[in-house]
Amino acid sequence: MNPQIIDNFGRKHTYLRISLTDRCNLRCFYCMPEEGVELTDKQHIMTLEEIVGISERFVSLGVDTIRLTGGEPLIRKNVETLIRELARLGVTLKLTTNGIVLDKFFDVLKEAGLRKINISLDTLEKSKSVFITKRDYFYRILDNIQKAIEHGFDIKLNIVLIKGVNDMEINDFIGLTRKQNIGIKFIEFMPFNGNNWDWKKGVSKEEILKAATFGYGGYKKLEDLKRSTSVNYQVKGFKGSFGIVSTITNPFCAGCNRIRLTADGKMKNCLFAASETDLLTPYRKGDSIDEIILNSIKTKKFSRDGMDTEMEKSHYEKNRSMIKIGG
Ligand code: SAM
Ligand code: SF4
After folding, report:
1. Does residue 323's CB lie within 6 angstroms of at least one atom of ligand 2?
2. Which end of the chain, C or N, has fewer beta carbons within 10 A?
3. What is the architecture, at CATH level 2, of domain 15-325?
């Protein structure tokens, strides 16, 4: 299908990230406000049939890749049915999960042809994991990562680096790529509603590369996939690789092909978009949402929803918390 979701900068949007729920079994401090979030009423959340129906419209407009995210996507009731249904749309399916219940889904994921899984793991120390996530699932997550690798899934570990918390573990994470063909994805700490963002707590791409030079003496730059949001590297002789998502210090918006759909059926043109387009209400009325999608993308700003040079508090505080967007 020809890509039709094209913004005013000529960018073709073929990658849809769908949040299946705003609920989660962890409480990562960088993702949600300390006091928690108000959960959306069930009646306003897309049903599984609605997710499939809305996805079909996106696919008919040229979307060829769908990532399932959340909240924690795998705690959505009957998610296995949804995975099977979405697989029928003929898209490349991907998943981002915290890994806690991942082992229960290996079979259905394989059946659906879903190979690429990103798993969040911010630290290799149990006590720190409890501090970051406010829950105690560290060993279960580690175990499931290992099992997923053994089952042949293509695994990337997502790590949000925070100064004084896990930045001293950069080389330990890169060390995991020595013998295993996995990807390590370091993500710069980003600002959302209620997450007390301050770039002084963030760790930049430059600092990550400096740490890697210090730890391993060097690394080579890999050729990045077209539209990749990370710049990727490999230490000589290592099987896996590491990448950096530098949204704050080196945004990669020029080639952006992503659209987001929140669990309550709002289209977001950008992770930082303060405004959203409701697709669920017209869809429930039986109206066509194609024109709404095509018009909405025309309002997409070139970079970070208009925060071209710096992250403005008055802007990002108007956005949702990450847990309610779907990262
Ligand atoms: N629960 C799943 C998980 O943790 O992988 C999926 C949803 S989570 C919101 C998706 C990704 O967003 C995770 O990798 C998480 O680390 C990342 N994330 C959350 N808050 C962030 C922030 N403030 N800055 C950068 N990345 C963030
Ligand atoms: Fe939950 Fe993922 Fe957010 Fe952590 S990062 S609170 S696991 S949604």
Report:
1. yes
2. N
3. Alpha-Beta Barrel (3.20)
